[in-house]
Structures are given as C-alpha cells and as structure tokens.
Amino acid sequence: MSIWTELSGIDYRHAYVETGDVTTRALQAGPEDGEHVVFLHGTTGHLEAFVRNIPAHAEAGYRCHAIDMLGHGYTGKPDRPGEIPAYVDHLMAYLDAVGAERAHLVGESLGGWVGSWAASEYPDRVSSLQLLCMGGTKINPAVMERLKTSTRAAAMEPETSYTRDRLALLWAEWDEDLGEELTQVRYEIYHHPDFQENLHNLLALQEVEARERNLLRPDRMARIKAPTLVVWGNKNPLGDVPEAEAIAAAIPGARLEIFTECGHWPQHEKATLYNPLSLAFLAESSSAHRQ
Asked: For the chain, first and last CA: distance in Å?
C-alpha cells in the first residue's frame, strides 16, 4: 500500500494555484460541478494527510481540494508569523482562485482551528465544518513545547528517525502501511532550505503570547452557524476527550464522535470509520442548506 495506490482509482490533479502573492500546492479530485470540500492539515503538515479520504469523497461526487496551507509543504512561504487570520486569508484566496463561492471545510488540528475561524468570520462561505482533533482552544505549555522540540529535531537533524518520531505522535499505533512512505515525504519537505528558514513562522502558535491572541474562545465558536461535526480520538496525545466535549458544547448544534483506539489523525488512522461518517454528514449538511 502506498500513496499512489490509495489514489490510483480516481482521476486527480496535483496542482499549483496562484492565490494572491502565494503559490498554493493542491491535490484536486472529483467532478468540477460537485460541491467543494477543502481538507486542511495540521501544524507543519501537508496535503498527504488526506490520501485515504480524497478517493471516497471524490467518488461520492464532491469536488475535493487538499491543500498545503500557507507556509506549509510546497506552498509559498512568506516571511511572516503563521497566525490564524493569515491562514484564513490564504484559504479565502484559494477559494476565490478555484471559483468556490462556498465550501465544506474539513480541518485536522491546526486545520480545524483555521476552519472554525473562517466559519465565524465568513458564514456565507462555509457550508459545513468538520473538526478532527482540532487545536486552538487551550494553552498547554507542555504540549506546545513537545511540538516545538520534536518538529525542530525532525527538520534540523539529518537522521530520518526524528521525522518518523514526529509523525508517530499522530497515531495511537504506528501505521506500517503508509508510515514509512509518509516519513520520506515529510523528511523531504522538512529538509528543504525554504522550510527550515520558515520553521519559526510555522511554530509561532506554539508560543504563549501568539497563541493567546489567536485562541478560539467560546464567544467566537458560538458565532459558528455552519453544521459542525467534531471527531476525536480517545488516545489523542495532544488533547483529551473533555477538550472535544467542550468544543462540541461551544458550537451551536455541533455533533461529537469519539473514535476508540485512535490518536490525532482520525481521518487517517480510522479511515474506514471516518469516510462514511463524513459522507453522511456532508449529505445531511447539503440537504439542510438546500431547504
């Protein structure tokens, strides 16, 4: 099993899209007249986080976009701190560039933080929201330091073991099928000079002062009007189940699903559970919007 075999059954495009002053890397699939679904990865992640999800969603008739967010992966890297409003501006620029007036947003970790902020600021552009082990509602210095230390080691040390260890943080159990391939993909990204030079910007939200001014507070989450699904792993090392419960309680009408024996990447680690759940939620959200 590899990234390529996961994608082999669909017609997809590996694209570079001009989004303002930034070139954005994207994986696009599904019918061009389908409802748009945009997949947003976590801190220092990249679009390959969703290779187990794109085929099912594209085959169901959705126009899928997995993107490398601002400064991440092979997307452009402006020299400015990666804070949430900047990520949201980049997301909106991408939607404009691909002609998407509205989109369903699926965000893992940082991606959920960005998606929630976007939904609170641009309600007319967000059809629904899926938050997969979302970050951004708490300040936990121990977790923030762990992310900083492990990511810097993965980016700056020459041994692939550090990249493997950083990736392994995301799973309750190491993924033998795609783990090594994703390690190599991430190693190449992390060891590109542009990524290393920009790393301090990507880790900006792991600093207390920056995180404080970007927090997703209950009053902002209460403004979210989009149908919202919160998905969590009961072995998520970066946030426990009560955090998920608090998020679901703060967003009006949000639904919460807890996956057992699952870490920080539910869409990947439990794809056979997540994909049908997501598709059912998207169908419900689309029907509600049409009514």
From this structure: 41
